[in-house]
Amino acid sequence: MTADPHGRAAFRALHAGPAPLLLPNAWDVASALALVADGHPAVGTTSLGVAAAAGLPDATRAARAATVGLAGRLAGLPVPVTVDLEDGYSDDPAEVAALAAALPAAGVNLEDSTGGRLADPGRHADRVAAVAAAAPGLFVNARVDTYWLGERADLATTLARARRYVAAGADGVFVPGRLTAAEIAVLAAELPVPLTVLAGAGHPLPRLAELGVRRVSTGSLLFRAALDAAVAGARRLRDGEPAPPATPYAEVDARTGALRA
Question: Which end of the chain offers a freer environment for a tag, N or C, measured as fewer CB atoms within 10 Å?
Answer without folding.
Answer: N
